[in-house]
Amino acid sequence: MNEMLDAALTVASAPNPAPIVPDGMSGPVNQIIGWGKWIVMALGVIGLLFCAGQMIMGRKNRHQMAADGATGIPWVIGGVSLIALSAPLVDAFI
To answer: Rounded to whole angstroms, how far apart are CA atoms 76 and 55?
Structure first.
């Protein structure tokens, strides 16, 4: 019975070939991905500077502004971490 089930599952499974880069596309695609990573990393630095500015400006009599700046830091770090881990995450699922 198990042999029949294994044979049925083997026949029913879809092919899963390895990804192949088309000729001449490796360089341009890597360049575009590199540009995207650079832009997002620069936005991450700007985001952290913005959070720091909110905390500095909210120090005196604007406590909610300081709190908003402090709560923005984990979001910025999370976004930058996701960008840094994007390629390994995609590799893990393929």
So the answer is: 15
- Listed in sequence order, the residues at least 6 apart from 41 whose beta carbon sits closer than 8 Å to its beta carbon are 80, 83
Least confident of 16-20, 32-36, 89-93: 16-20
Q: DSSP state, 13?
A: S
Distance of CA 73 to the CA centre of its chain: 16
Distances (CA, A) of 94 to 1, 16, 22, 60, 90: 32, 9, 18, 51, 6
Cβ contacts of 29 within 8 Å, gap of 6 or more: 21
Rounded Cα distance, 40 and 32, in Å = 12
Rounded CA gap, 33 and 50, in Å? 25
pTM of the model: 0.69
